[in-house]
Amino acid sequence: MIETITVLGAGTMGYGISLNFALAGYAVNLFDVRPEALNNALLNARKALSVMIEEGLHTKEEGEKALAGIRPFTDRPAACAQADLLMEAMPENLRLKQDTFVELDALCGPDCIFASNTSSLKLTDICAPLSQSRKSRALITHYFNPAHLIPLVELLPHPDTPPTVLEEIEAMYKRAGKVSIRVLKDINGMIGNRIQAAIGREAFWLIENGYCSGKDLGRALAFGPCFRYATTDYLEIVDLGGVDIWSVVHDLLYKDINSSTEVSGLLKNKAASGEHGWKTGKGFYSYEGQAKAEVMERFLRNLARQLKVSKNYMF
Ligand SMILES: NC(=O)c1ccc[n+]([C@@H]2O[C@H](COP(=O)([O-])OP(=O)(O)OC[C@H]3O[C@@H](n4cnc5c(N)ncnc54)[C@H](O)[C@@H]3O)[C@@H](O)[C@H]2O)c1
Question: Which of 33, 90, 118, 149 to mutate to test the pocket of ligand 1 (most atoms within 8 A of CB)?
Fold first, then answer.
């Protein structure tokens, strides 16, 4: 039974993952090699919680209890020895993830489940140097940023991991209020990121070629297709619209929509210019002075509101 969860890496993903588990009543050990990362993570968790409390997702008492339930560690053996689940959210580096898992394989109890939040590495590669028994308790648990607010977690078990382990993880995510999905075969980008990339290819092409402004592209997504994708099963949307119509329209459009195998020049040039978005103060929009904090606050608050509303239609 999963009671203690150790999160390795207290960066962008680690603090949100820890907060989500702590809010669900799990004991969370948060480990990082940098003490300042741990301090920031706890600060970020506190800020994130205050928005969730203001939006009525949790009470102040629940928030305080959750924060007290996240224990920061710079001593890895102390953080991991009693863990029932290890969840790594360390930098996207195969060697680092492999070495860490091998070292912890020897330290953790035989039942401890090893999970990786990798976005692009193959689980079979990360687990290649692990003992056979640990391979049978390993999986990818892929979150979306911010991890405490986006419900989806994609699960991809190691080929040697039996369904019982997957079911235990699914039960844990149910308790944590997440929507987990099973990725049935190993595939780059899993499901969510592949769809995001497909949208991105066409979205950047439409803007770059003057078919609409960036603002209107955003409105088209939010108040058009994504408005219904957010509330209703995808194949049901097709059924409701008419399978015959979808078939004809897609057949016509596939011949016309962008099929480039390279990223759009608009995105590539922006990245090369050093305008990397919110973190550098400028990307497609400007984030200077007061605006910087306000934009992040609005982003988190709107997601918290959406999360609250989504409780009525999760499917
Ligand atoms: N950022 C995203 O949007 C996102 C989304 C989904 C998945 N991911 C994946 O999650 C993982 C973490 O991404 P991130 O954006 O949180 O990275 P990050 O750089 O923000 O955080 C990584 C943290 O790991 C710490 N770290 C470095 N070496 C360590 C070690 N040996 N042991 C423990 N901690 C160590 C760093 O100090 C840092 O605090 C990556 O695999 C990434 O691909 C990221």
Answer: 90
